Amino acid sequence: MKPKFFKTITGQKIPLPVFFPDATRAVIKSLDSKDILNTKTPGILINTFHLSQTPGKSVIKTFKGIRNYMNWNGAAISDSGGFQVMSIAKSDGSKNAVTDAGVRFKLTGKKKVMFTPKDSIDIQMILKSDMVVVLDDFTPPNASKKQAQETVDRTIKWAKICKSHFQKLTKKTDPTKKPYLLGIVQGGFFPDLRKECTEKLVEIGFDGLGFGGWPVKNDGTFDYLSAQIIKDNTPPNYLLYGLGIGKPHEIVSLVKNGWHIFDCVLPTRDARHRRLYVYNADSINHIDINQSDFYQYYTPDKEKYYKDQSPVSTACDCQLCQNYSKSYLAHLFRIGDMTAGRLATIHNLRFYSILMEKLRNNK
Protein backbone atom coordinates (compact mmCIF):
# COMPACT_ATOMS: atom_id res chain seq x y z
CA MET A 1 0.00 0.00 0.00
CA LYS A 2 1.32 3.44 -0.93
CA PRO A 3 2.09 5.67 2.08
CA LYS A 4 -0.43 8.47 2.65
CA PHE A 5 0.95 9.95 5.86
CA PHE A 6 4.22 10.80 7.56
CA LYS A 7 3.79 9.49 11.10
CA THR A 8 5.67 11.06 13.99
CA ILE A 9 6.82 9.44 17.23
CA THR A 10 4.42 11.78 19.04
CA GLY A 11 1.41 10.37 17.21
CA GLN A 12 0.89 12.95 14.46
CA LYS A 13 -0.17 11.85 10.97
CA ILE A 14 0.96 14.41 8.40
CA PRO A 15 -0.55 14.05 4.90
CA LEU A 16 1.92 13.44 2.09
CA PRO A 17 3.66 14.95 0.20
CA VAL A 18 5.57 17.20 2.59
CA PHE A 19 8.35 19.78 2.41
CA PHE A 20 10.58 20.26 5.44
CA PRO A 21 12.82 23.36 5.39
CA ASP A 22 16.34 23.11 6.75
CA ALA A 23 16.62 24.15 10.39
CA THR A 24 20.26 23.08 10.49
CA ARG A 25 21.08 24.11 14.05
CA ALA A 26 17.51 23.75 15.37
CA VAL A 27 16.57 27.18 14.06
CA ILE A 28 15.55 28.79 10.79
CA LYS A 29 17.40 32.09 10.69
CA SER A 30 15.28 35.01 11.96
CA LEU A 31 12.27 32.81 12.81
CA ASP A 32 11.11 31.21 16.05
CA SER A 33 9.25 27.92 16.25
CA LYS A 34 5.84 29.61 16.28
CA ASP A 35 6.71 31.55 13.11
CA ILE A 36 7.44 28.26 11.34
CA LEU A 37 4.15 26.68 12.40
CA ASN A 38 2.26 29.81 11.32
CA THR A 39 3.45 29.21 7.75
CA LYS A 40 1.70 25.82 7.95
CA THR A 41 5.04 24.08 7.65
CA PRO A 42 4.56 20.65 9.28
CA GLY A 43 8.17 19.68 9.92
CA ILE A 44 11.85 20.59 9.77
CA LEU A 45 15.18 18.99 8.90
CA ILE A 46 17.89 19.23 11.56
CA ASN A 47 21.61 18.55 11.25
CA THR A 48 22.94 15.71 13.35
CA PHE A 49 26.60 16.72 13.28
CA HIS A 50 26.16 20.42 14.04
CA LEU A 51 23.76 19.74 16.93
CA SER A 52 26.13 17.14 18.36
CA GLN A 53 28.77 19.89 18.54
CA THR A 54 26.58 22.78 19.71
CA PRO A 55 24.70 22.61 22.03
CA GLY A 56 25.97 19.02 22.29
CA LYS A 57 24.47 15.61 22.92
CA SER A 58 24.32 16.00 26.70
CA VAL A 59 22.26 19.20 26.47
CA ILE A 60 19.76 17.70 24.00
CA LYS A 61 19.55 14.61 26.20
CA THR A 62 18.71 16.79 29.21
CA PHE A 63 15.75 18.19 27.29
CA LYS A 64 14.72 14.69 26.13
CA GLY A 65 14.94 15.55 22.47
CA ILE A 66 14.96 18.38 19.98
CA ARG A 67 11.24 19.19 20.29
CA ASN A 68 11.44 20.17 23.93
CA TYR A 69 14.71 21.98 23.33
CA MET A 70 13.31 24.35 20.69
CA ASN A 71 9.64 24.16 21.74
CA TRP A 72 8.69 22.63 18.40
CA ASN A 73 5.38 20.81 18.00
CA GLY A 74 5.88 19.61 14.43
CA ALA A 75 7.80 16.76 12.85
CA ALA A 76 11.59 16.52 12.71
CA ILE A 77 13.91 14.60 10.41
CA SER A 78 17.61 14.39 11.20
CA ASP A 79 20.22 13.84 8.52
CA SER A 80 23.08 11.43 9.18
CA GLY A 81 25.70 14.15 9.67
CA GLY A 82 27.93 12.37 7.20
CA PHE A 83 28.12 15.06 4.54
CA GLN A 84 29.39 17.66 7.01
CA VAL A 85 31.87 15.27 8.60
CA MET A 86 33.24 14.19 5.22
CA SER A 87 33.56 17.79 4.09
CA ILE A 88 35.66 18.57 7.17
CA ALA A 89 37.71 15.39 6.80
CA LYS A 90 38.53 16.00 3.14
CA SER A 91 39.18 19.73 3.52
CA ASP A 92 42.40 19.23 5.50
CA GLY A 93 43.91 17.01 2.81
CA SER A 94 44.01 13.89 4.97
CA LYS A 95 44.46 10.63 3.12
CA ASN A 96 42.15 7.73 3.88
CA ALA A 97 39.85 10.02 5.88
CA VAL A 98 36.90 7.87 4.82
CA THR A 99 37.18 4.12 5.42
CA ASP A 100 34.77 1.26 5.99
CA ALA A 101 35.08 1.96 9.73
CA GLY A 102 33.80 5.52 9.38
CA VAL A 103 35.10 9.04 8.85
CA ARG A 104 38.17 10.34 10.65
CA PHE A 105 38.20 14.11 10.99
CA LYS A 106 39.65 16.92 13.08
CA LEU A 107 37.96 20.09 14.29
CA THR A 108 40.06 23.21 14.86
CA GLY A 109 41.99 22.92 18.10
CA LYS A 110 40.87 19.36 18.77
CA LYS A 111 42.22 15.84 18.30
CA LYS A 112 41.20 13.68 15.39
CA VAL A 113 38.12 11.59 16.07
CA MET A 114 36.26 8.83 14.25
CA PHE A 115 32.61 9.28 13.27
CA THR A 116 31.05 5.86 12.71
CA PRO A 117 27.69 4.60 11.42
CA LYS A 118 26.75 3.71 15.00
CA ASP A 119 27.66 7.22 16.19
CA SER A 120 25.27 8.71 13.66
CA ILE A 121 22.39 6.52 14.84
CA ASP A 122 23.18 7.17 18.51
CA ILE A 123 23.04 10.94 18.09
CA GLN A 124 19.83 10.83 16.06
CA MET A 125 18.14 8.72 18.71
CA ILE A 126 19.13 11.32 21.32
CA LEU A 127 17.57 13.99 19.08
CA LYS A 128 14.38 11.88 19.03
CA SER A 129 13.85 12.38 15.32
CA ASP A 130 10.82 11.05 13.50
CA MET A 131 13.05 9.78 10.71
CA VAL A 132 16.58 8.51 11.32
CA VAL A 133 18.89 8.55 8.30
CA VAL A 134 21.70 6.02 7.89
CA LEU A 135 25.26 7.18 7.30
CA ASP A 136 26.18 7.02 3.62
CA ASP A 137 29.24 7.72 1.50
CA PHE A 138 28.44 10.71 -0.72
CA THR A 139 29.19 10.19 -4.42
CA PRO A 140 30.85 13.39 -5.76
CA PRO A 141 29.31 14.77 -8.98
CA ASN A 142 32.64 14.34 -10.82
CA ALA A 143 33.23 10.77 -9.59
CA SER A 144 34.60 8.15 -11.96
CA LYS A 145 32.78 4.84 -12.32
CA LYS A 146 35.31 3.21 -10.01
CA GLN A 147 34.92 5.91 -7.36
CA ALA A 148 31.14 5.75 -7.60
CA GLN A 149 31.24 1.97 -7.14
CA GLU A 150 33.35 2.41 -4.01
CA THR A 151 30.83 4.84 -2.52
CA VAL A 152 27.99 2.43 -3.28
CA ASP A 153 29.85 -0.48 -1.66
CA ARG A 154 30.63 1.55 1.45
CA THR A 155 27.09 2.94 1.61
CA ILE A 156 25.73 -0.61 1.67
CA LYS A 157 28.20 -1.71 4.38
CA TRP A 158 27.31 1.26 6.54
CA ALA A 159 23.58 0.75 5.93
CA LYS A 160 23.82 -2.79 7.32
CA ILE A 161 25.65 -1.55 10.42
CA CYS A 162 23.17 1.28 10.93
CA LYS A 163 20.15 -0.97 10.64
CA SER A 164 21.56 -3.55 13.03
CA HIS A 165 22.37 -0.86 15.60
CA PHE A 166 18.99 0.84 15.13
CA GLN A 167 17.19 -2.46 15.72
CA LYS A 168 19.19 -3.01 18.89
CA LEU A 169 18.32 0.46 20.23
CA THR A 170 14.61 0.21 19.37
CA LYS A 171 14.09 -3.43 20.32
CA LYS A 172 11.81 -2.54 23.24
CA THR A 173 10.29 0.59 21.70
CA ASP A 174 6.53 0.77 21.21
CA PRO A 175 6.05 0.35 17.42
CA THR A 176 3.84 3.47 17.34
CA LYS A 177 6.70 5.52 18.82
CA LYS A 178 9.47 4.09 16.69
CA PRO A 179 11.05 6.46 14.14
CA TYR A 180 11.38 5.65 10.47
CA LEU A 181 14.75 4.38 9.27
CA LEU A 182 15.83 5.71 5.88
CA GLY A 183 18.43 4.23 3.55
CA ILE A 184 20.29 6.48 1.11
CA VAL A 185 20.85 5.61 -2.55
CA GLN A 186 24.23 6.58 -4.00
CA GLY A 187 25.78 5.87 -7.39
CA GLY A 188 26.20 9.26 -8.99
CA PHE A 189 25.12 9.61 -12.60
CA PHE A 190 25.62 5.90 -13.34
CA PRO A 191 22.20 4.25 -13.84
CA ASP A 192 23.46 0.72 -13.18
CA LEU A 193 25.01 1.78 -9.87
CA ARG A 194 21.84 3.60 -8.80
CA LYS A 195 19.89 0.43 -9.53
CA GLU A 196 22.41 -1.77 -7.71
CA CYS A 197 22.40 0.46 -4.63
CA THR A 198 18.61 0.66 -4.56
CA GLU A 199 18.17 -3.10 -4.83
CA LYS A 200 20.73 -3.87 -2.12
CA LEU A 201 19.17 -1.35 0.27
CA VAL A 202 15.73 -2.85 -0.32
CA GLU A 203 17.22 -6.26 0.42
CA ILE A 204 18.48 -4.95 3.79
CA GLY A 205 15.06 -3.47 4.47
CA PHE A 206 14.10 0.10 5.38
CA ASP A 207 11.02 2.26 5.82
CA GLY A 208 12.05 4.38 2.88
CA LEU A 209 14.87 5.40 0.58
CA GLY A 210 16.44 8.78 -0.09
CA PHE A 211 17.87 10.22 -3.29
CA GLY A 212 21.49 10.70 -2.21
CA GLY A 213 24.38 12.40 -3.90
CA TRP A 214 24.26 15.35 -6.25
CA PRO A 215 20.89 15.65 -8.09
CA VAL A 216 21.95 18.20 -10.72
CA LYS A 217 23.78 17.07 -13.86
CA ASN A 218 26.73 18.87 -15.44
CA ASP A 219 24.42 20.65 -17.88
CA GLY A 220 22.47 22.14 -14.97
CA THR A 221 19.39 19.97 -15.39
CA PHE A 222 17.89 17.76 -12.70
CA ASP A 223 18.81 14.06 -12.70
CA TYR A 224 15.31 12.69 -13.23
CA LEU A 225 16.71 9.40 -14.55
CA SER A 226 18.24 8.47 -11.19
CA ALA A 227 15.00 9.43 -9.44
CA GLN A 228 13.08 7.17 -11.82
CA ILE A 229 15.46 4.25 -11.28
CA ILE A 230 15.10 4.53 -7.50
CA LYS A 231 11.31 4.72 -7.78
CA ASP A 232 11.09 1.75 -10.19
CA ASN A 233 13.13 -0.51 -7.91
CA THR A 234 11.53 0.39 -4.59
CA PRO A 235 8.52 -1.39 -2.98
CA PRO A 236 5.27 0.64 -3.18
CA ASN A 237 5.00 0.93 0.62
CA TYR A 238 8.36 2.73 0.94
CA LEU A 239 8.63 6.45 1.63
CA LEU A 240 10.68 8.20 -1.06
CA TYR A 241 12.69 11.20 0.08
CA GLY A 242 14.39 13.74 -2.19
CA LEU A 243 17.21 15.02 0.02
CA GLY A 244 18.16 18.60 -0.78
CA ILE A 245 15.42 18.87 -3.43
CA GLY A 246 14.51 21.47 -4.35
CA LYS A 247 13.04 23.86 -6.77
CA PRO A 248 9.23 24.07 -6.99
CA HIS A 249 8.95 22.63 -10.51
CA GLU A 250 11.29 19.75 -9.59
CA ILE A 251 9.12 18.90 -6.59
CA VAL A 252 5.98 18.94 -8.74
CA SER A 253 7.55 16.52 -11.23
CA LEU A 254 8.79 14.15 -8.54
CA VAL A 255 5.50 14.11 -6.62
CA LYS A 256 3.70 13.18 -9.83
CA ASN A 257 6.16 10.29 -10.07
CA GLY A 258 5.49 9.03 -6.55
CA TRP A 259 7.97 10.87 -4.32
CA HIS A 260 6.80 11.98 -0.88
CA ILE A 261 9.28 14.04 1.16
CA PHE A 262 11.53 16.97 0.29
CA ASP A 263 13.90 19.35 2.06
CA CYS A 264 16.01 22.21 0.80
CA VAL A 265 17.80 25.37 1.91
CA LEU A 266 16.54 27.31 -1.12
CA PRO A 267 13.38 29.00 0.22
CA THR A 268 15.05 30.29 3.37
CA ARG A 269 18.45 31.12 1.85
CA ASP A 270 16.86 32.80 -1.16
CA ALA A 271 14.63 34.89 1.10
CA ARG A 272 17.64 36.34 2.89
CA HIS A 273 19.24 37.11 -0.48
CA ARG A 274 16.27 39.03 -1.89
CA ARG A 275 14.65 36.25 -3.90
CA LEU A 276 10.99 35.56 -3.19
CA TYR A 277 8.77 32.95 -4.83
CA VAL A 278 5.47 34.21 -6.25
CA TYR A 279 2.63 32.30 -7.88
CA ASN A 280 1.44 33.48 -11.29
CA ALA A 281 -2.15 33.71 -10.07
CA ASP A 282 -4.45 36.33 -8.58
CA SER A 283 -5.51 34.14 -5.64
CA ILE A 284 -4.64 30.89 -3.88
CA ASN A 285 -7.70 29.24 -5.42
CA HIS A 286 -6.50 30.05 -8.94
CA ILE A 287 -3.00 28.62 -8.60
CA ASP A 288 -2.42 25.98 -11.28
CA ILE A 289 0.69 23.92 -10.58
CA ASN A 290 0.12 21.92 -13.78
CA GLN A 291 1.23 24.92 -15.82
CA SER A 292 4.95 25.01 -16.60
CA ASP A 293 5.17 28.67 -15.58
CA PHE A 294 3.11 28.48 -12.39
CA TYR A 295 5.56 30.64 -10.42
CA GLN A 296 8.23 33.27 -10.81
CA TYR A 297 10.95 34.93 -8.75
CA TYR A 298 10.41 38.35 -7.24
CA THR A 299 13.26 40.71 -6.34
CA PRO A 300 11.83 43.07 -3.71
CA ASP A 301 14.31 45.95 -3.68
CA LYS A 302 14.12 47.05 -7.32
CA GLU A 303 13.51 50.77 -7.74
CA LYS A 304 10.18 50.23 -9.52
CA TYR A 305 8.70 48.84 -6.29
CA TYR A 306 9.70 51.78 -4.07
CA LYS A 307 6.22 53.36 -4.29
CA ASP A 308 4.20 50.19 -4.98
CA GLN A 309 1.33 49.90 -2.51
CA SER A 310 0.27 46.38 -3.55
CA PRO A 311 1.24 43.19 -1.67
CA VAL A 312 4.01 40.93 -2.92
CA SER A 313 1.37 38.37 -3.90
CA THR A 314 -2.42 38.18 -3.86
CA ALA A 315 -2.06 34.39 -4.10
CA CYS A 316 -0.57 34.18 -0.61
CA ASP A 317 -1.98 34.58 2.89
CA CYS A 318 1.32 34.91 4.77
CA GLN A 319 2.15 37.61 7.31
CA LEU A 320 4.01 39.66 4.69
CA CYS A 321 1.37 39.57 1.97
CA GLN A 322 -1.54 40.19 4.32
CA ASN A 323 -0.03 43.17 6.12
CA TYR A 324 2.68 44.95 4.14
CA SER A 325 3.26 46.53 0.74
CA LYS A 326 5.99 45.92 -1.80
CA SER A 327 7.19 49.42 -1.01
CA TYR A 328 7.65 48.68 2.68
CA LEU A 329 9.52 45.43 2.04
CA ALA A 330 11.79 47.24 -0.43
CA HIS A 331 12.47 49.83 2.27
CA LEU A 332 13.37 47.16 4.85
CA PHE A 333 15.84 45.52 2.48
CA ARG A 334 17.35 48.90 1.51
CA ILE A 335 18.10 49.80 5.12
CA GLY A 336 19.33 46.29 5.92
CA ASP A 337 16.83 45.65 8.69
CA MET A 338 16.56 42.03 9.85
CA THR A 339 12.76 42.27 9.56
CA ALA A 340 13.16 42.11 5.78
CA GLY A 341 14.74 38.66 5.91
CA ARG A 342 12.22 37.48 8.46
CA LEU A 343 9.16 38.51 6.43
CA ALA A 344 10.69 37.20 3.20
CA THR A 345 11.47 33.86 4.85
CA ILE A 346 7.93 33.58 6.21
CA HIS A 347 6.61 34.29 2.71
CA ASN A 348 8.80 31.69 0.97
CA LEU A 349 7.92 29.01 3.51
CA ARG A 350 4.23 29.72 3.02
CA PHE A 351 4.78 29.49 -0.75
CA TYR A 352 6.14 25.98 -0.26
CA SER A 353 3.40 24.91 2.14
CA ILE A 354 0.78 26.13 -0.36
CA LEU A 355 2.61 24.14 -3.04
CA MET A 356 2.34 20.96 -0.96
CA GLU A 357 -1.35 21.63 -0.29
CA LYS A 358 -1.95 21.95 -4.03
CA LEU A 359 -0.01 18.74 -4.71
CA ARG A 360 -2.00 16.82 -2.11
CA ASN A 361 -5.22 17.99 -3.76
CA ASN A 362 -3.91 17.38 -7.28
CA LYS A 363 -4.19 13.60 -7.11
Question: Strands, helices and their partners?
Answer:
Elements: E1 5-7, E2 13-15, E3 18-21, H1 33-38, E4 43-46, H2 48-62, H3 66-70, E5 75-78, H4 82-91, E6 98-99, E7 102-106, E8 112-115, H5 117-127, E9 131-133, H6 145-169, E10 180-185, H7 191-204, E11 208-211, H8 224-232, E12 239-242, H9 248-256, E13 261-264, H10 266-272, E14 276-279, E15 295-298, H11 319-323, H12 326-334, H13 338-360
Parallel strand pairs: 3-13, 4-5, 5-9, 9-10, 10-11, 11-12, 12-13
Antiparallel strand pairs: 1-2, 6-7, 7-8, 14-15
Describe the structure.
A hairpin with a 5-residue loop joins strand 7 and strand 8. The protein has 363 residues and is an alpha/beta fold. The model has no long low-confidence stretch (mean pLDDT 96). It folds into two domains: 5-264, TIM Barrel (Alpha-Beta Barrel), CATH 3.20.20; 274-340 and 353-360, no CATH class. The chain is globular, with a radius of gyration of 21 Å. Helices cover 41% and strands 16% of the residues. Helix 2 (48-62) packs across helix 5, helix 7 runs parallel beside helix 8 and helix 10 packs antiparallel against helix 13. The chain has an eight-stranded parallel beta sheet with strand order 3-13-12-11-10-9-5-4. It has a three-stranded antiparallel beta sheet with strand order 6-7-8. A two-stranded antiparallel ribbon has the order 1-2. Pfam families: TGT. Keywords: tRNA processing. This is tRNA-guanine(15) transglycosylase-like domain-containing protein. It comes from Candidatus Shapirobacteria bacterium RIFOXYB1_FULL_38_38.
